Structure prediction request, 455 residues.
Amino acid sequence: MNRDDTITAPATPHGEGGIAIIRVSGSQAENLMKLFFRPSSKYSEIYSHYFYHGLFLNEESEPLDEVMAVLMRKPRSYTREDVLEIHCHGGYLSMQRILETFLKGGARLAEPGEFTLRAFLNGRIDLTEAEGVIDIISARSDRAARNAFRHLRGDLFKLLGNIRSQLVDLLVLLEAYIDFPEEEVAIPHFHDFSHGALSAEKAINELLGSFNVGKILKDGLVVLLLGKPNVGKSSLLNRLLGEERAIVTEIPGTTRDTIEEYLSLGGFPIKLIDTAGVRDSDDPIEVEGVERAKGKITSADVVLLLVDGSQGLTPEDYTALEFSHGTRRILVINKQDLGAVALPGDLLQLPHVNVSARTGQGFEKLQDLIIEQVAPAQGPDIGESVILSSLRQKEALGQSLESLGRFKAGLKERLPLECLATDLRDAIQSLGEVTGETLSEEVLGRIFSRFCIGK
Ligand code: GDP
Prediction:
């Protein structure tokens, strides 16, 4: 992909709205502005970061729309290149025509994420911040957005920077000793090395430990509704969502396929899956639905097992119990408004709650129970810590940890310093992969600045 050309793309979603924004980034941005934008007053020069009112013209100099234009000269822009934004009327056609005009003027349609990629390549943000940008856009709850914003703000980058800088310090010592044995370098204290590695390991492990919550923030806690037909799964889903989404009917087995919906509970995104009722059936569509439900159970974080509390348990309830064995479950005893029969004691060993999807009774407790499944260890107060939410980052950190493990083992075995340095370098390299930095020049730079070699 060429990185020197000028790219353009709509910055706002397609569809009708008050305004739409088309963004251009690259060396031709100012030129394109001069070609196609006619300000309503004459200006001797265009100032950076100022809004100008005027007309947008096509390549035949015919006006397309009345717009506002802002040019952000490099490096004070999102991509650190010259960036032009055209704010036009928010209809599909106006946006499309302006975009086409830019393309005819020599710009290229940007690839997905290419503006942010350029921001990274031009050193304005690191990879964790770039991923924060993506996450904040797709966040489905308060906490997810806040965590993405912390990444965007560079909190993870700083944290990793601290760990990395500890390790680079160790490597600098090792390398100096390897490269310049004739220099008077203090013989490395093995204790310092293992202490440094341990402290980095601890910090990485803490980050890795936050991944479970991070994953939920990103993908949602997967909550599956399970129970025999007519027990009230759709009604429960609707009440949790606060709207009529799944069709509620009196005929058993109407929710034939699975329905997935997102909601936000306690700031966490929850992915609710309503399944076909569990029962034996000859109807092939329904059988298929039940099979899909079974498949979904394994990928669920929590199963809400619904039973009709106004009636005794039937064999179908036991089938549902059996299906969900081995998953975290909350027993939801529904239809309390119709009265309650006593349930077997062993069933009540499960975390359970009495509700009525009709009246809303018990829903607060149900919501609390669901939220507890997200962060049982951390409690509700995971507020300000940096949480890892990207699998890519997790894997790179895992590799760093492995290298650190080898480094520590090598220390114990008193392996040659070259081998130790390789493991340490790998550990740093993997950390660098998380943030997208490269290593060698930095280490070299630090060796030179410390030891004044070449004087
Ligand atoms: P599903 O097949 O498990 O999805 O069950 P539905 O949500 O479609 O509900 C089946 C029937 O039970 C509908 O007529 C609902 O109105 C009724 N129902 C669901 N929950 C309750 C409840 O808590 N109380 C009462 N009285 N009726 C309920």
Q: What stands out?
A: The first strand starts at residue 7 and ends at 10. The pocket of guanosine-5'-diphosphate is lined by residues 227, 229-235, 248-250, 255, 277, 334-335, 337-338, 356-358 (CB under 6 Å). Residues 218-378 form a domain with the Rossmann fold fold (CATH 3.40.50.300).
